[in-house]
Design a protein that fits this description.
single chain, alpha/beta, FAD/NAD(P)-binding domain, D-Amino Acid Oxidase, Chain A, domain 2, eight-stranded mixed sheet, seven-stranded mixed sheet, globular, Geranylgeranyl_reductase, Geranylgeranyl_Rdtase_fam
Amino acid sequence: MPDPCWLGPAGLDMTDQVFDVVVVGAGPAGGAAAFTAARAGLQVALIDRKTFPRNKLCGGLITGRARRYYHEIFGEEMPFEPQDRKTVVDFRFRGRSVGLINDAPALCMAMRWDMDHLICAKAIAAGTRDFTGCQISEINLNAKFLGLKDGRTIRYGVLIGADGANSSVAKALFGQSFDRTRIGFGLEIEATGDHINPEAPLRIDFAAARWGYGWAFPKRCSTTVGVGGLMARNPDMKTAMAEYLTELGIDCAPKAFKGQFLPFGDFRKVPGRDAMLLCGDAAGLVDPITGEGIAYALKSGKLAALSAVDSLSNNAPATALEGYRRRLVGIHRALRMARWIRPVVFLPALEGAFETTFRRSSTLRQDYLRLMAGEIEYEHILKALALRVPRLLVHAVGAGFRQRQSR
């Protein structure tokens, strides 16, 4: 237990509650951070305005990488029923099949309602103080306290913001939670009915949205269907969603769509300040190609907690960010590589070339799935694409020339 000299000489009001680490947001990133810090012997508070279980917009696809990180943190396998495991994936491009994979690395389906509740419960069982269902009224970074709407004051040594794309901690640090010119946005529904087949393959539709994709993930009781992409390139995402549902034969009114900002690879190079750290979606740690964020949420939550442990053990909480940035080097490197690759997948001028290449190359399709499974990293994909880029560019130039000739 670190010496709480980080509190300084100021006296405390009797309504103050003091913790080594305060985590805001009790999803996968926050739960992993709180669990890790509590297991290290720190006094930890976990704050979320919602009580758990709660609904959360998410496709619910749990990759092999996410399952591996979950095991590293909690020491056990993430629980799934046999029917939650999928090994058949149907790739589409504007509705046209570009490959059906029957032996994909196992991808698992989860409802965030269940998964987040499980992770939050593990953090609390490890000794974290439960402040779920509490709303924050004030974040004072200079005085290092949070005010709750019920009048209580929560003081911290290290503050971890794991409160998603709309992070109140990020807003307190930087004046805004995200950059609207770079953020992604997604719409989603849980489709039910007799026409929904839980045994259907996973379906991923490239170009269902501009600089994005669509997804249909069958589960035991429903199929999660959505579209997502860069918000600046999709001024009418509801139309894209409606067209995608029509393509799938699903009748759903637009008012039923659930929306959420998605930090689609727009990660923060400096994820915090001194003793204030951001992790998960709050730090923009979402894959800019697949849109997957649960794996990096879990991993970054753990890394933020370890950095808090080190800094508090040295009675120097202001050094937490320095240690955290060192630990994030690998994740940031992977995200940079993915951003270099992203235009090959989503740039309109290369769409035709990408479709043709993806349809013809079983290796490329398998590599995409192996990437999601955590069996390979973007460095491998980048090397493979380097051999194909000249052909992609020739195809794009030829397509542009033919388009001009037809006018």
